[in-house]
Amino acid sequence: MVSAARILQRCDELARHSELAGGLTRIFLSPEHRAAAALVLGWMREAGMSAGLDDIGNAVGRYEGERAGLPCVMLGSHLDTVRDAGRYDGMLGVVTAIECVAALKGRKLPFAIEVIGFGDEEGVRFGTTMLGSQAIAGVADPALLDKKDAHGVTIRQALIEFGLNPAGLKTVARRKSDVLAYVELHIEQGPVLESEGLPVGVVTAINGFSRLKVALRGVAGHAGTVPMSLRRDALTAAAECVLAVERIAKSDGELVGTVGRIEAKPGAINVIPGEVHFTIDFRAPRDELRAQAVRSAAAEVQAIAARRNVRCEIETLQELGVAACAPWLMSQLERAVAAEGFPVRKLPSGAGHDGMALKSIADIAMLFVRCKDGISHNPAEAISADDAGTGARTLFRFIEAFQAA
Ligand code: GLV
Ligand code: MN
Ligand code: MN
């Protein structure tokens, strides 16, 4: 049987591999990534899988079916984190999938199982959300290899320094015929399940997102000498833009919008900010609604910049459309939830997940596990042992009863 205690203990062990003392930050292709992946690969082997790091930094374990080489049910989640993260976002899905394979105790199924710990879902280091799963799905743009981190290191260089192969961006791709389904267990990262007293829920679709980067350039100057009427302050312009994003996001109940990062230069108490860079993240369950929000935000930012006499550049960093979960997989997850004795709650995912990339090669589904106070992307992220156990047993039931489409 699955062990909830071992799942939580392994999430704790992974959380120790962090660049942040006393907290958790683990970015793609860092020494902490290497250490976390080594732990995961060891657990995969213990569970009876062959395991290794692929050329793009994903930890991949394979458990053969009744015959070697059968198509697989792909399970997993990510091993990278946001800055100052919680310890379950991503890791719970990887560790639970391994626990389910271990619980088979060598029993063979009419399909293989692969568990993947994706290396770069959050995109913190290079701004490349879901690079690992895009590569597995064969949809990663080779131009991504030239993206740089904050120190000017490209993905290509970082992969080579890590002992990996940039060609992996294409060579790790799977064929559609090799993957029967992609199923991910993840904490909900929101408050719905908790508010309804339910330990697990079945995801209907993952909301799409658009990510933009904005640069505003005015004129830096002396904070004491330049009269207010003669300033070209990039930060006051950005402040208006931030509020415009909030106003647009509030215009529709299904839309959310966030300015999560802002940097003002030169950044001194006595200097008028001459240059500001900020990001915009819009999400919605309908692609047209999100596209409209992006158009409105771009128009408002340009209008604000023109009125305040600052130059503006807007760059689209990434766009991923809504990823619908497959009804045939959802109904198998629903049966597993019901067999655990819980009502089936279906809900959309506001957060992004690797299924958004993997939908290009396989039908996808997700099982959410309740988290405390709906808090995520925060060190206060928490789940109970009971819920970890319910999630794992539900996933195990799903695997045991899995019927390909
Ligand atoms: C990934 O965690 C996201 O930003 O949704
Ligand atoms: Mn996350
Ligand atoms: Mn996640």
Keywords for this entry:
single chain, 405 residues, alpha+beta, 12 helices, 33% helix, globular, binds manganese (II) ion
Order of helices and strands: HHEEEHEHHHEHEEEHEEEEHEEHEHEH
Ligands in the model, by name, code or SMILES, are:
glyoxylic acid, manganese (II) ion
Beta strand %: 15-25%
Number of helices: 12
Q: How many β-strand stretches? A: 16
| Helix coverage percent | 25-40%
Q: Decide which structural class fits the backbone.
A: alpha+beta
- What is the average of the pLDDT values? 97
Radius of gyration of CA atoms, rounded to a whole number:
22 Å
- Spans of at least 5 consecutive residues whose pLDDT stays below 50 are none
Shape: globular
First-residue to last-residue Cα separation: 27 Å
Largest sheet: 9 strands, mixed
Characterize the structure shown.
- This protein has helices at 4-15, 31-46, 91-103, 131-137, 155-161, 168-171, 192-195, 234-249, 287-307, 327-339, 355-358, 385-401; strands at 50-53, 59-63, 72-78, 112-118, 179-187, 200-206, 208-217, 221-222, 256-258, 262-265, 271-272, 275-284, 311-320, 323-324, 346-349, 364-369.
- The chain is globular and about 75 Å long.
- The protein is α+β, with helices and mostly antiparallel strands.
- The two termini are 27 Å apart.
- The strands form three sheets. Strands 1, 2, 3, 4, 5, 6, 14, 15 and 16 form a nine-stranded mixed sheet that branches. Strands 7, 9, 10, 12 and 13 form a five-stranded antiparallel sheet that branches. It has a two-stranded antiparallel ribbon with strand order 8-11.
- Bound molecules: glyoxylic acid (GLV) and manganese (II) ion (2 copies).
- The site of one manganese (II) ion has 6 residues, from loops.
